[in-house]
């Protein structure tokens, strides 16, 4: 297996992101429309948090609603802001970080996505799914 492959080779670069002032209703729409589980949250393009679909499930009854259903419990979502629900204790990596290093971070932490940044600028996201796909390509 290749040892020094940078995370930039497997990261997603067409990033779907939320602004810190966006609503949770918008977040759920983005999750469902794009079939994703993690959305970076930015404030003036600077990464400030990560929102996961699991974060939304914790505050709503969304897990009891059929995934194809378009009904959103806006009452619950209006009680909270993106900033209140998102994870703020982020670890980001640079595009030059090796895939092995990213895998080690994800394997030892409680999250499943890492923002990829050049300085303060968000340039990508790498998820456990990206890592699994990379691993499968090695066989």
From TrEMBL:
Domain of life: Bacteria
Cited CDD domains: CBS_pair_AcuB_like
PROSITE patterns in alphabetical order: CBS (PS51371)
Keywords: CBS domain
Ranges for domain CBS: 11-67, 86-139
UniProt xrefs under InterPro entries: CBS_dom, CBS_dom_sf, Diverse_CBS-Domain
Keyword Transmembrane helix annotated: no
Protein name, per record: CBS domain-containing protein
Species of provenance: Flavobacterium indicum (strain DSM 17447 / CIP 109464 / GPTSA100-9)
